[in-house]
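Weekly structure sync - notes
Attendees: PM, LS, DV (DV joined late)
Agenda: review two folding runs queued last week.

Item 1: First target. Sequence and structure tokens pasted below for the record.
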Amino acid sequence: MKLRTLACVAMVGCALGAGTVGAQREAREQNLRQSSVTSVGAFVEKWQQRILNQNLAVADPQNWAARNLAKFSSFSAERLALAMQATSIAEVEALLVAAPVANGTSLALLMATKPGNISLDALIHQVSQGAVAKADPTTAPATYADLLFTALNPCRIMDSRVSQGGTGPFVNGVQRTIKIGPYPAAGGGYATGAGAQGGSATGCGLDTLASGNQIAAAMVAVTSFSQTGSGYLTFYSASTADPSVTVVSMFYQAGVVLTAFVVMPTDSIAPVFSRGISRNANTEVTIDIVGYFAKPHALTFDCVASGFTTTNIPANSMNFYDAPVCPAGYSATTPYCYTNASGVYNQGSGLNNNVVGNTSFCAWQNTTGAAQQVNSGSMCCRVPGR
């Protein structure tokens, strides 16, 4: 689960000894405490101590903070606020989810291979019925073969909790409408206005989709919690019959926070909707969109340079710096990081989660006693399927 794809970052132990890794981590955490994102460092430090003190069940507990600091640092203010409100490690780690497949992945391939970490049952059932009453591109089920994946920064499109602006838990046997979008931030996003469902006040990166029939299916991370018993959730197109008597998207049980990746069919008519239903018990539900499947917009690579951001990195510090945003319709594919300064070292580079108009980043460490100049840029391409 990655929000930033690091090429080689010394802080997480890329070909370095344990002592060096610890020193790098300490330097970066110290820099965070001195920066404008103090809340990130304080939050991660608090949870690292809680994990160790309470022996919480996480992978590699000693290095949890080091592994996740870059992810939390990349969060929007809104998503960081959600993390700050978390009361359990399960809720915290649910916020770290990102798309489990790469950009450009064919939906038809996923349907054929049925990977174990993604629930596709509702979509496969819908296609098998041969009566998909939806707008283009899914009038004919065979056209699912043309749909490719675009990843998004994880963004909450639904939160059933009344305290978070939702309308209450999914009630056993009661159908719920889920708006997928695009819903512009100017209209309140998913949080306010008609059909508010307790989600983000932003458009979740979907505002650039000009027409409603572009999202034929959404990849979402569904989290179930505060259940009244054991049961299951089913998600299906708003224009098809409820298949939940025989089709399961994810199971849940009382008292356990569970998260699953689900490919959620949509009705493909602006604004795009899906539906969800719980069976056998009630449950609170959050839904984070991590990407969507749509017809490809580009058939060949077409690349331009983003230009460079020139920044002065403070003395004796380590920081991430973003390159300029790619032109509309282009995606960052390769980061460029360079400096002429002595005593300044590149600690890695990567992509800020592949979304249209995204950037790359460079991580720098300045070991000198004075501010030094560094430069960050990207190669931006129209990627097939984007």
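Item 2: Second target, run right after the first with the same settings.
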Amino acid sequence: MKIISFFLILFLFAAGSAAGQTECSVSAYVKDSDPKGLNVRMGAGTTFKAIGRIPFSDDGTMVNIIASNGKWVKISGAQNAEGKRVFSKSGWVFAPTLAISIVDSARAVNVWSTHSKKGSIVSTLAAGTEYMLESCKSDWIKVTIKGSGKPFTGWLPPGDHCGNPWNSCS
């Protein structure tokens, strides 16, 4: 009976930690300039234990994002400009410490109200501009857009955002 209770509690804990989590498949780069590095945590929030740090680099560090939960994203490693893996575990980082840029192209990029082109266009962005991450879903990225008014958020479709700090992804 104790074994069954143990596994039931373990199952409920695992299910609870996945609540609100959505899968993603995108990349972004670290914008946190803390010389100690970017904390990576066991779960989506500051109450979870830090399991390591992504070292700070003036040249940039790219992360692979596999999930999102609120303003937290789950990464599956990080690499530096030389292609060396500088963090090899999976863990959670605060999304606004990461950024993407708009793909370098000749056209403006539409920003959508939702993670689908069935939503409405809320803004257009010029190529080469950088935006802080809010979250992601599938291969769409939600970003914070700061203009002359109050900052707002919007969704960028696949192919319009670049998570590589060393080139323009065009």
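Discussion on item 2: Residues 20-162 form one domain.
Action: LS to circulate a short write-up before next sync.
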